[in-house]
Amino acid sequence: MKFLLLIIIGLVGFFAVYPKHVSSPISVPQTVLPQVTPDPFEDLTIPALRTRSYSSQMGELKQISKNANFTSFLTSYTADDLHINGLLTQPTGKAPEGGWPVIVFVHGYIPPSLYKTTERYVEYVNFLARSGFVVFKIDLRGHGNSEGDPGGAYYSGDYVIDTLSAIQAVQSLPFVNKDRVGLWGHSMAGNITLRTLAAKPDIKATAIWAGAGYTYTDLLDYKIQDNSYRPPQDQSRQSARRKELADRHGPFDPNDSFWKLVPPTNYLGDIRGAIGLYHAIDDTVVKVDYSRNLNKLLDATTIIHELHEYPSGGHNISGASFTKAMQTTVEFYKKNL
Question: How are beta strands 205-209 and 274-280 bridged, if at all?
């Protein structure tokens, strides 16, 4: 017994000098995931434009003119936290049940520094307003007094974002029918409005006058001859972005995984709204082939569409063709909005 007691005392002393061994945690190698840098040109693609939020409200309506047929207001809305200005024209009289149908009107290329809200497209807007449509002609960012830099149409998502935000803003007005919203676009706005429609396929009616840049291969095939075009300055944001885009993704390639996500014609299968195309054969700025080529693609779909060609009128479909083209456009909206 005494011997056993000595053994116990010895063991206690041993563990007092050498503490109990505490097993360390098993070291498990951790998988380090590669850090993915967001693509700064994601908003150029249709899938990204579809998933963005476009929360926007119309600003104060400031009346600038009134006649027997309509009242015009200067106003603004927000897009990408920028204040974007516009001209809103409301028909005179009692609105139809549910509110006035509304057309978001997107201007073509005008040198941004020369653009003024109340100039250009006056007769186009007035004709539509006299025909019973609220017309919201937006000043794309960087144009006139709209905030932001003019990002360009074909290789930026900026103007599409401005257009989609305008739709959201105009739908908040109490006197419009938010379920009857259409688009009107001219020249470069052919690209803007068709990409807007691809991003929001339920827009009911889109009218495009002398539009360009649908498949993006058409830009290479037919070119654009616009003597009013002023290239961005070398130090401008637009110039820097175009260089960065070229460095990252190269020139347009219809087989490239990124570029496949850009042309609206790759998403025709989703579109549920009607498309009207209007083009003068003697247009020397944007060839009528742009509209003819798009019309052939639409022929292979179930999309309601129509192509109207005019023997004269040039890029703005002016002169003798103007009234006929506007009447046909109004008929198109009344059928499809």
Answer: parallel
- Gap between the Cα atoms of 203 and 276, Å rounded: 13
**CA–CA separation, 26 and 292 (whole Å):** 69
Q: What's the Cα-to-Cα distance from 290 to each of 220, 298, 307, rounded to whole Å?
A: 11, 12, 11
Cα angle 335, 172, 330; round to 5? 20
The rounded Cα 199 to chain-centroid distance in angstroms is 7
Helix (H) or strand (E) holding 189: helix 189-199
pTM over 0.85: yes
CB count within 10 Å of CB 169 equals 26
C-alpha–C-alpha distance, residues 194 and 271, integer Å: 10
Q: Cβ(334)–Cβ(205) under 8 Å?
A: no
Chain segment 24-65, per-residue pLDDT in tens: 444 555 655 555 568 989 999 999 999 999 989 899 999 999
- Alpha carbon distance 324, 319 (integer Å): 10
Q: Which residues are CB-contacts of 214 (< 8 A; sequence separation ≥ 6)?
A: 190, 191, 194, 263, 264, 265, 290, 293, 294, 297
Angle at 152 between CA 110 and CA 279, to 5 degrees: 55
Residue 133: partners with Cβ closer than 8 Å, 6 or more residues away: 91, 100, 101, 102, 103, 182, 330, 333
Angle between the N-to-C axes of helices 158-170 and 189-199, in degrees from 0 to 180, rounded to the nearest 10: 60
**Residue range 233-256, pLDDT digits in tens:** 655 777 788 899 999 999 999 999
